[in-house]
Target: cysteine desulfurase
Amino acid sequence: MPVYLDHNATTPVDPRVRDAMQPWLTDRYGNPSSRDHALGWDAEEAVAEARAVVAGLVQGQAGELIFTSGATEGLNTALRSFVGYRDWDRKRIITCATEHDAVLAPCRRLAELTGVEVQVLPVDGLGHVDLDRLEAVLGASDKATLVAIMAANNETGTLHPVRKIAEVVHAAGAVFLCDITQAVGKVAVNLHEEGIDLAAFSAHKVYGPKGVGALFVRGGVSQTRLEPLILGGGQEQGFRGETLNVPGIVGFGEACRIAQNGWQGEAERVGRLRDRLEQTLLAELPDTWVNGDRENCIPNTTNIGFAGIDARTLIRDMHDIAVSTRSACSSGSSGPSHVLKALGLSDDEAQACIRFSLGRFSTLDDVDYAVANIMASVHRLRAGGVSGR
Model:
């Protein structure tokens, strides 16, 4: 088995989560919308319990949580709802250049289809938006505005100052949508205290199953601005028609319960391992650098550049170290990472970078083994003059 250092792409299902899900895949197979028998009541109760636990991890209320197939669906629902809201004929979306494609792609599409104004703000060399510029842009128009800026970047780990962003957004009378996918379970998330109106995240980034996630809708927002993306049987308070994925939701709840009880200790341990990997590579390999904000970042992630090396060639040369060059959702692209380009890197520099993201089951032996193999491969490729391009 390879040493797995790609947890920002997905995490392995925790065995405790798997065990919690198992009965709902076999004996307890009821549909929570079936209100006429015990199997349906049982499933309905399980969903309600999971909803409360998932909401609790992010300091929200159970009634503010809509289960989805993942963060991408949640973000699309929020963005499309905003544009489709019938009482707003003049709208715009403000986002930033380092957002995940789950925000940038629907923004582009909505601009094409509806004519909604989309403004993509640049970031500085650490990946931060200029709050003064955001304030100026918000004040430059009387259009109804949605601001979509993530909590933690998936490629560099950089944390945005979410609470300060929310203050600027709300002072202008705008709505704040935040992709919290990479922050949940790694740093403290309190949606109400941080002033987030809409937020999306996924189970499979917190050691739960793939195919389930949640959209948080702060009380009051749903009555005025949210419309369903999927119409059907009226599930999820009428916001998402579809038979609920009970095993996935139960697994999501258990994953959040585990995270709630242990994320701080886990973050400290993983952070030490991340620091060891990062510091050793920077000390032992010349012409290496770290992308993003090293002081304000999630504890499991580092994005390191190796001058003169093509990252994909390096990954192939290492064989059994599972890492990535960018977000898994855009890994099929042959061009450089849009996130790293937004930070000011050249094409060659961006294509020389690897994201390392550690997790719950990463060990010191894993890190030391990975470091030894990375250094050997870099020395070998540099000595051979191989760039892969």
Observations:
- The chain has twelve helices and twelve strands.
